[in-house]
Write a structure and sequence with these properties.
The protein is α/β, with parallel strands linked by helices. It contains 13 helices and ten strands. About 35% of the residues lie in helices and about 10% in strands. Strand 4 and strand 5 form a beta hairpin. Helix 3 runs parallel beside helix 4. The longest helix is centred in the first third of the chain and has 21 residues.
Length: about 350
């Protein structure tokens, strides 16, 4: 990364920190925010499509059979992730080994958008022919078909394969989270039925850069850098159409002053491509602590349940991303308890999950 780009990122981070300091008050209101009345739901975008497939088999059944346990103002918008050894993968190194057919069928059963995390920033044209990633896209396409046991014959498969989504009774768009424009152009041409999400791995720390990204017709959603979470004066000037495309990252634990975030993501991209590279050395003063939800809650850019209900939703924002693909399912459960579960029923949900003998919580 060049010195000029580093300088721009540093300037943007400093400006965002000032916005956060000005807007991070104990009050749930802010005089600079134009609130709108809305009965719309908030949609959470959850981590671990492949990584936590067994966990979601249990949780989704519980979520839809016992809606009284969960807040009625929210729902599940999507579940995202990627299996191990995907060269198009980015953000985090995927480790899930569940069969794609089973994963996509589970999402189709509940009418939940499945999103492949293909946010590698270093894709070159020669990577577009990768067999595994193309096969995953074919399966994702199959899962998008309504009311069919959809059979696919593909140049990327050694045999025919199918998705049973006959249980589903509503149409929805599966999608792909993407960083590389080379990959985006390839996928748009081959799979126009997908929705595309601009990845937070782009580290767009400047508001104008974010706005330009939101205004691109290529993307249905854009995940901003978490340091833009509380730039309310600027976010409040967006049109409703622009707000509908924003997907805020709620529970980021990364150091708010990090100047090396893009390099961190690029290292993951190189690793997923199979390049021989050194691991990224985190520059955070507390890097040795690892991820702790309690620490994330003290991040100045953290978005709490109260923030969602009392600030973001009244402003017209309804999409919220929970990170956690590289974490264990036990911690993901804590995220779902905090963000989606009524306090009086959290013990019920926790017991159902932990007492399931078929589920390996880690």
């Amino acid at each position: 990364m060049g010195n000029k780009e580093n300088s721009n990122i540093d300037d943007n981070i400093n400006n965002n920190l000032n916005d956060i300091k000005n807007n991070n008050t104990n009050s749930s209101t802010n005089n600079n925010i134009n609130y709108i009345s809305s009965n719309r739901k908030a949609y959470f975008h959850l981590p671990g499509l492949f990584e936590f497939y067994e966990f979601y088999k249990v949780f989704l059944s519980l979520f839809y059979e016992h809606r009284e346990y969960f807040y009625d103002w929210c729902d599940i918008g999507s579940i995202y992730g990627a299996p191990a050894d995907c060269i198009w993968g980015g953000g985090r190194a995927g480790f899930g080994d569940s069969e794609a057919e089973k994963v996509f069928s589970l999402m189709a059963q509940y009418g939940i958008s499945a999103r492949l995390t293909f946010s590698n920033s270093l894709i070159r044209k020669e990577h577009l022919a990768d067999v595994k990633c193309n096969k995953l896209c074919e399966l994702l396409k199959a899962a998008s078909k309504l009311h069919s046991d959809y059979k696919v014959t593909s140049e990327y498969a050694s045999k025919d394969y199918s998705i049973d989504n006959s249980i589903r009774d509503t149409a929805f768009k599966n999608g792909i989270i993407v960083h590389s424009d080379i990959l985006l152009d390839y996928l748009k041409n081959k799979y126009p039925e997908f929705c595309f999400v601009s990845s937070t791995t782009k580290v767009l720390t400047g508001y104008n850069d974010l706005l330009n990204e939101v205004n691109r017709d290529d993307f249905s959603y854009v995940v901003p850098d978490f340091r833009l979470n509380r730039c309310f004066d600027k976010l409040g000037t967006m049109t409703q159409e622009q707000k509908d495309k924003i997907e805020f990252l709620c529970n980021e634990c990364c150091w708010i002053g990090c100047y090396d975030r893009k390099a961190c993501y690029e290292t993951v991209s190189r690793m997923n491509l199979g390049e021989n590279c050194n691991g990224h050395i985190c520059v955070s003063p507390e890097a040795g602590d690892g991820y702790r939800f309690s620490k994330a809650m003290h991040n100045p850019a953290f978005i709490s349940v109260d923030d969602i209900r009392n600030i973001y939703m009244p402003m017209g924002f309804t999409n919220f991303k929970i990170e956690g693909r590289s974490l264990g399912s036990a911690l993901v459960l804590e995220f779902l308890l905090y963000y989606m579960t009524k306090p009086e029923y959290q013990i019920n949900v926790r017991e159902e999950i932990y007492l399931d003998n078929m589920l390996d919580i880690f």
